[in-house]
Amino acid sequence: MSEHHHKETFVTKYIFSQDHKMISKQFLITGIFMGVIGVFMSMLFRLQIAWPEKSFTIIEAFLGTHQSGGVMEPDMYLALVTIHGTIMVFFVLTAGLSGTFSNLLIPLQIGARDMASGFLNMVSYWMFFISSVIMVISLFVETGPASAGWTIYPPLSALPQAIPGSGLGMTLWLTSMAIFIASSLIGSLNYIVTIFNLRTKGMKMTRLPLTMWAFFITAVIGVVSFPVLLSAALLLIMDRSFGTSFFLSDIFISGEVLHYQGGSPVLFEHLFWFLGHPEVYIVLLPALGITSEIIATNSRKPIFGYRAMIGSIIAIAFLSTIVWGHHMFISGMNPFLGSVFTFTTLLIAIPSAVKAFNYVTTLWKGNLQLNPAMLFSIGLVSTFVTGGLTGLVLGDSALDINVHDTYFVVAHFHLVMGVSAILGMFAGVYHWFPKMYGRMMNKTMGYWHFWLTMIAAYGVFFPMHFIGLAGLPRRYYTNTNFPMFDDVADINVVITIFAILGGLSQLIFLANFFISIYRGQKATQNPWRSNTLEWTTPVEHIHGNWPGKIPEIFRWPYDYSKVDANGDYIHGEDFVLQTTPLKDGEDPS
């Protein structure tokens, strides 16, 4: 496909665009908007946990006058937790990472004019947008939004009469998720086909940047696991609306015997977690790929163990699809089956450790450029290791039983998936902002954003491990009825203060992002002096990426600080673009 020279209208350029660069911006800004909603919800329910008996004007203002004069109702608390989890996992992290960076970088880094199907790419975004709108609309339903937890276990999610949040709010939740899954599947298939079929001349699979490997394997995981969640959602809709009992059996409500038999809520758990655990890596692998690129660039060194990194991505992808049962150790699982899931879960620590080791080794003795993108990448390595260590406890069935459904679990998965993925997303935004908007973000504001975010993240989730070990259960809107938890009440206050600090510190990022779009310093073509193909395109966007012929690739993407026998840079610089032809006797890898 050659460049497009036809004149574009406002609608075709900014709304129904088929240009992958514009679609990546649409995903990012929609994800940021959803992120603001999700983070604000977490600040509201943290107020309730820290000061359960106090009245807050902000609660009454945003949640309605029926909140007992500013004191949050139990139903609303559970609804906020449910929608917060759903928005952050699916609408922020999945869209903010895969939707944004797969769209932006895949054609640019493999040397393609655009995605394999620009039309399906556009459809993927608009289905994501519609699903986001439906999820937000569910917040305003009179009976309340879905409130069965983000895992929506039956029977709460299967019986419209179970609790207020089981009614129309849950129906909208299921509708939104079904559309979201269809969007993700269309996107994933497009990414896979593009990487397989549209690589430029010389771009072998072993010359792809690690970002491409991460996005490619992430798309494969999505194609394998997302249909399973779609089937679970459809069967749940049938249980709710058409009288089937896939997930229901022997149900009593207020003394009434309901006519359900033969189903099992545990079946739903299996279907949900078959997507739910790979989803951790659908979120995390793109962040790790982004980190690989940024750490190599800003260490001015080749990434350590390129092929080992590819192997670890593939191993993580395979293992992540066969460990879902570790979420179900207390569901009455056969102890032998529990031991199998324990083994496969602990096995995933090996490729994860390979990645962490390779990051540290790449940083070791590098010429570190500590810009905001690099700091967020190093922060990701920190939280990935910290959160991963507690996974060893939760992956062991005998140990997990003691802390299951406590704040220990909340701390673990927020650090290893939530915080790590968000840090990776911020790193990617700071690094590729010049490629998206042709301008630079403010570095000083980026430093403030990083340090406040990191302090807040550890301030929130590190203490949670200890209140979890003390037995404090998650999802309770108050613990005042349990005297044994009085001693941890002050810790919850500290956690809430850090959560509010973390939420407010994101205002720095929002200001930096939107101001820099219009007023940021104009970027040069290759501001980070990086090797990969996207930095050979003009600063001004054209639909087709390169004017004239697409460049040819001659080398791998991590030729940094290449010196000769005298210690001089072979090409006169400490980096060599992938498009630079080889000199006599030079190793292409």
Would you give an account of this structure?
- The protein is mostly helical and 589 residues long.
- The protein has helices spanning 10-15, 20-50, 57-63, 74-110, 118-137, 168-197, 210-241, 265-299, 306-320, 335-347, 349-363, 372-394, 397-403, 407-437, 443-469, 489-519, and strands at residues 252-253, 256-257.
- A two-stranded antiparallel ribbon has the order 1-2.
- It is globular.
- The two termini are 29 Å apart.
- Overall 3D geometry? globular
Please mark out the parts with pLDDT under 50 across 5 or more consecutive residues, or reply none. 1-5
Give the terminus-to-terminus CA distance: 29 Å
Strand segment count: 2
How many alpha or pi helices? 16
Radius of gyration: 24 Å
Strand and helix order: HHHHHHHEEHHHHHHHHH
Assembly context of the chains: single chain
Mean pLDDT metric = 92
What portion of residues belong to β-strands? under 5%
What is the helix fraction of residues, given as a range? 55-70%
Q: Report on the biggest sheet.
A: 2 strands, antiparallel
GO molecular function, one term: heme binding
InterPro entries: Cyt_c_oxase-like_su1_dom, Cyt_c_oxase-like_su1_sf, Cyt_C_Oxase_1, Cyt_c_Oxase_su1_BS
Protein name: Cytochrome-c oxidase
Main location: membrane
Keywords, please?
589 residues; 16 helices; disordered N terminus
Secondary-structure map with pairings?
Blueprint: H1 10-15, H2 20-50, H3 57-63, H4 74-110, H5 118-137, H6 168-197, H7 210-241, E1 252-253, E2 256-257, H8 265-299, H9 306-320, H10 335-347, H11 349-363, H12 372-394, H13 397-403, H14 407-437, H15 443-469, H16 489-519
Antiparallel strand pairs: 1-2
Helix pairs in contact: 2-4, 2-5, 2-16, 4-5, 4-6, 4-7, 4-8, 4-14, 5-6, 6-7, 7-8, 7-9, 8-9, 8-11, 8-12, 8-14, 9-11, 11-12, 12-14, 12-15, 14-15, 15-16
